[in-house]
């Protein structure tokens, strides 16, 4: 994977600009947190990276390929190398957790295995990989449970286990920590960072600025434009105030960030930041 480039990207919905002139270079293997107020365009940015939204203007290049000019088959091939955790998790609710995880296995063998698992019963025939992934994410006992019957946080972990099986080159995690408790957040974060260390480029849309500060590079969107792009140390209270200015809801996911505050960054100064990984400070200046 040679990284990601968005060049002057604009996306509009019924005349409303969701993204305006967004230019971002993301190097292969980078960890990038995307923040911004509700409606700032974060999800639209992620959808543009899988060609799931029409582009008004600009260019999106993933691994050297112009995403929006690719023929269908090549687009499919590229998409299989992109792992997503979206707010709806992209899981098939009627299928068991184990089968959903198996869907991460690309290629014929993976598909056959999944079909076999589907027909043989909810928990039968799963590959070792799928089982190990569920174990790793703490859902070893849920392989046979219908995904619809799992809690929101458990479904989120199923989506993460699927990534462990898929081993994508690019991970798009759109609010991966919504609806999960702090322990699960840590577990999911560690898994994503593990996949990143193994080479995957990681983009995470985060509501919680404290979590975003743990990434070496933070991009903030404000009204569809890039309002900040740099290391978390430069994310001062002033910057944050500009980014979230006029945001009526603060953190719609329910802020755990300070009593009585409705702002997602309340209580966290620029100093409090820390990182999990070492040696990743070399944020490329774009
Ligand atoms: N399918 C759509 N049709 C019409 N408008 C849309 C559509 N998707 C997004 N929008 C609009 O585009 C803007 C950006 O939305 P987007 O979902 O990208 O924001 P966001 O930053 O992800 O917000 P949140 O944090 O609340 O999820 C918003 O004004 C939204 O209402």
Automatic annotation (TrEMBL):
Disordered: annotated segments: 244-286
Stored Gene3D superfamilies: P-loop containing nucleotide triphosphate hydrolases (3.40.50.300)
Compositional bias ranges of the Gly residues kind: 247-257
Annotated organism of origin: Rubrobacter tropicus
Any one GO molecular function term: ATP binding
Protein name: ATP-binding cassette domain-containing protein
InterPro entries (UniProt xref): AAA+_ATPase (IPR003593), ABC_transporter-like_ATP-bd (IPR003439), ABC_transporter-like_CS (IPR017871), MetN_ABC_transporter-like (IPR050086), P-loop_NTPase (IPR027417)
Biased composition (Basic and acidic residues): 277-286
Keyword Methyltransferase: no
């Amino acid at each position: 994977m040679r990284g990601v480039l968005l060049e002057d990207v604009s996306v509009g919905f019924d005349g409303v600009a969701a993204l305006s002139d967004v230019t971002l270079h993301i190097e292969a293997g980078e960890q990038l947190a995307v923040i911004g107020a509700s409606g700032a365009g974060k999800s639209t940015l992620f959808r543009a990276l899988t060609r799931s939204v029409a582009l008004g203007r600009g260019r999106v290049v993933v691994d050297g390929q112009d995403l929006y000019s690719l023929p269908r088959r090549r687009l499919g091939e590229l998409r299989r190398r992109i792992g997503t955790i979206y707010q709806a998790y992209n899981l098939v609710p009627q299928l068991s957790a184990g089968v959903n995880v198996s869907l991460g296995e690309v290629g014929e063998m993976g598909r056959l295995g999944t079909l076999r698992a589907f027909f043989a019963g909810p928990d039968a025939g799963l590959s070792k990989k799928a089982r190990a992934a569920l174990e790793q994410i703490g859902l070893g006992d849920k392989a046979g449970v219908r995904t619809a019957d799992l809690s929101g946080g458990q479904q989120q972990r199923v989506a993460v286990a699927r990534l462990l099986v898929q081993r994508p080159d690019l991970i798009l995690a759109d609010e991966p920590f919504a609806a999960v408790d702090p322990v699960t957040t840590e577990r999911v974060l560690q898994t994503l960072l593990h996949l990143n260390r193994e080479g995957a480029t990681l983009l995470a849309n985060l509501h919680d600025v404290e979590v975003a500060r743990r990434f070496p590079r933070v991009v903030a969107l404000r009204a569809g434009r890039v309002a900040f792009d740099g290391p978390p140390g430069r994310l001062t209270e002033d910057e944050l105030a500009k980014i979230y200015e006029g945001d009526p809801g603060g953190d719609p996911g329910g802020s755990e960030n300070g009593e009585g505050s409705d702002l997602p960054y309340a209580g966290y100064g620029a100093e409090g930041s820390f990182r999990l990984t070492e040696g990743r400070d070399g944020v490329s200046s774009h």
